[in-house]
Amino acid sequence: MSRVRRIVLGWLSVMLVAAIPSLMAAPVQAQGSPAGLLLAQNAIDLKQAVEIARRAFGGEVVKAEEVAQDGRRLFQIRLVNNGRVRDVLVDAESGRILNP
């Protein structure tokens, strides 16, 4: 193998290894999500959405699920507090409560 070819292959290897962290940090397409939504790096999970709803309204969580509405990922959390049932919608990207 010629010296030039070894140098070029060496530099290509170095550049590839240097690029791996940025490739791994790229958003990943969500499996099973409606319309192939891309997950943002600051997206929350179901457990975090449950905690957000409980802190805001109190009560006991009786149901929690991921839903899609108008192409957006949301979490629907059902709480029971003093006999009252409340459904809370939490935005999966920002963690904001969408219904007061």
How would you describe what is shown here?
With 100 residues, the chain is an alpha+beta fold. 34% of the residues lie in helices and 28% in strands. The protein is built from two helices and three strands; from the N terminus they run H-H-E-E-E. The protein is rod-shaped. The model is unreliable at 25-40 (pLDDT under 50). Pfam families: PepSY.
**Class by alpha and beta content:** alpha+beta
Total beta-strand segments = 3
Overall morphology:
rod-shaped
Number of domains: 1
Number of helices: 2
Major β-sheet annotation: 3 strands, antiparallel
The level of helicity is: 25-40%
- Taking pLDDT < 50 over at least 5 consecutive residues as the criterion, the unreliable ranges are 25-40
Order of helices and strands: HHEEE
Strand content: 25-35%
As laid out across the biggest beta sheet, the strand order is: 1-2-3
What is the rounded Rg? Answer: 22 Å
- Give the termini separation: 70 Å
- The average pLDDT value, as a whole number, equals 78
Signal peptide: 1-25
Domain PepSY: 44-98
Keywords: Signal
Protein name: PepSY domain-containing protein
